[in-house]
Amino acid sequence: MASLPSPPFVLIDGVHNYRDIGGHGLPPSSTSSVRRSLVFRSADPNRASTAGVATLRALGLTVIYDLRSAPELAKAAPVAIDGVARVWAPVFEEHDYAPERIAVRFRQYASSGPDGFVHAYADILASAGPSYRTVLLHLAQPCPTPCLIHCTAGKDRTGVLVALLLSLVGVPDDAVADEYALTDVGLAEVKPAFIERLLENPALEGDEEGVRNMVGAKSGNMLATLEMLRERYGGAEG
Which residues form the Tyrosine specific protein phosphatases domain (predicted)? Predict the structure, then answer.
């Protein structure tokens, strides 16, 4: 984890894939960029060490939005952080959407192209209205405070929401997709464990190539998802 590029990554002991979504430039005609130190994203932060919790507090976080389902919470209960509110905003309240379970629902998710990801991300969008609304209302305040958004891996449910946020403020598709692809770097340390568990899943039948695709975060997956977003909803604002 110590070798992760900073920015955007922040080293939090015990937490993977923790990074700031700020700093991305808007179109060339604009001199603005996405505000830093306002929205952070990560994998499950509930294994943060004592030192990691201290770092989280030092970042000025006021609220953590947990997008996980009830079955996922039962496996890894939230850790209290003094002065930081925790808001449960599940995308799928009762369905376990951890990486190991996605394979059962979306066998095509492990195919070599982006189609499986687009299918899965369309399912997230169709279910995430109440969940994402909670975060959007926080950020729509006149003076929003720093927040963390996470799911289990910080890749899919979190990744779709972050893509929406960046698209809403005008970040070009290529930059949105590049930000999404940083998850490959952020999860590099834990990918072998994800792959090992997934290969034990009968739904994947030992398909190592498919599993490696499934745990990846290729920019093409997000570019195809953004195209689906335009076709189905008229874009991020729609």
Answer: 148-166
Confidence of residue 108 (pLDDT cuts 50, 70, 90): low
- What is the pLDDT averaged over residues 7-16? 94
Is the distance from CB of 157 to CB of 43 less than 8 angstroms?
no
The one-letter code for the residue type at 124 is I
- Two tokens, residue 219: 């920019």
Mean pLDDT over 22-29 rounds to 74
**Residue written as token pair 């305040």:** 141
Q: Is 198 in contact with 211 (CB distance < 8 Å)?
A: yes
pLDDT tens track for 200-234: 877 777 778 778 888 889 999 999 999 999 999 99
Report the range out of 98-112, 170-184, 204-218 with the highest average pLDDT.
170-184
**pLDDT surpassing 60 at residue 136:** yes
Relative orientation angle of helices 129-139 and 157-168, to the nearest 10 degrees: 50
3-state secondary structure the chain: CCCCCCCCECCECCECCCEECCCCECCCCCCCECCCCCEEEECCCCCCCHHHHHHHHHCCCCEEEECCCHHHHHHCCCCCCCCCEEEECCCCCCCCCCHHHHHHHCHHHHCCCCHHHHHHHHHHHHHCHHHHHHHHHHHCCCCCCCEEEECCCCCCHHHHHHHHHHHHCCCCHHHHHHHHHHHHHHCCCCHHHHHHHHHCCHHHCCCHHHHHHHCCCCHHHHHHHHHHHHHHHCCCCC
Q: In this structure, are residues 67 and 161 in contact, taking their beta carbons and an 8 Å threshold?
A: yes
